Amino acid sequence: MTSMEIELKQISKYYQVPGKEKRMVLDNLSLKIESGDSVAIVGPSGSGKSTLLNLISSLDQANSGVILHGEREIGKLGEDEVAQFRNRNLGFIFQSHHLLPQLSLIENVLVPLIPEKDKKIKVEAEKRAQELIDFVGLSGQISQLPGQMSGGECQRTAVVRALIHQPGLLLADEPTGSLDKQSADQLGDLLVSINEKQKVTLVVVTHSMDLAKKMKKIYKLDNGKLSKI
Ligand SMILES: Nc1ncnc2c1ncn2[C@@H]1O[C@H](COP(=O)(O)OP(=O)(O)OP(=O)(O)O)[C@@H](O)[C@H]1O
């Protein structure tokens, strides 16, 4: 997989809670993210950052507009196709690492391969897992359980898990939100080197300007609109 270009054309998204007025969250918004770019989305709480990420990742659908991943228009794919597209092309990192507590580091990293039937793909991914674990500096800890690792180490493990299928796009929602300053700084640097060396486009939603500043571009989301800062 090579890094992916993403384009959002005139996207609008509103929520309609019964008995309440329609709430416009994203208002006719356009954005082009070039292949291999690293982009931070910042903005006040409730401005729609996670909503935007959910649309890019096809977990949610816009009310109007078009989202392109390379040549592919996400809104035109059927449910199964979208799920397959997500599995094969996208990697996700969240504020919480979501590792399974009863599994070791290496077992957690290999979880996304459980449904994989193709032996060759599986073997290649297992080899890649080892290389990625080396890359994030955790090769000495592959047998440890999440409870025996620090928050930063768990989050780095989650990064490896997100990269196991060689996604073209890595999406991170507040990836440093639960880390102390030093671990947050380390994780930010790791995301930057992954963007540069693993050929993956990176989109990070964050409240942290320290993290945002590590990305090549920063956009602020406010009142449904994006502006470059
Ligand atoms: N499923 C939903 N139904 C109704 N309203 C929603 C839904 N999801 C989000 N919202 C509303 O949409 C707005 C944007 O939410 P979103 O979570 O995208 O903001 P955010 O910028 O990520 O916030 P934060 O920084 O606090 O995580 C908020 O006002 C929120 O209450």
From TrEMBL:
InterPro entries: AAA+_ATPase, ABC_transporter-like_ATP-bd, MacB-like_ATP-bd, P-loop_NTPase. Signal peptide: none annotated. Pfam families: ABC_tran. The keyword Transmembrane does not apply. CDD domains: ABC_MJ0796_LolCDE_FtsE. Keywords: ATP-binding, Nucleotide-binding, Translocase, Transport. Residues 6-229 form the ABC transporter domain. GO terms for molecular function: ATP binding; ATP hydrolysis activity. Belongs to the ABC transporter superfamily. This is ABC transporter domain-containing protein. It comes from Marinifilum breve.
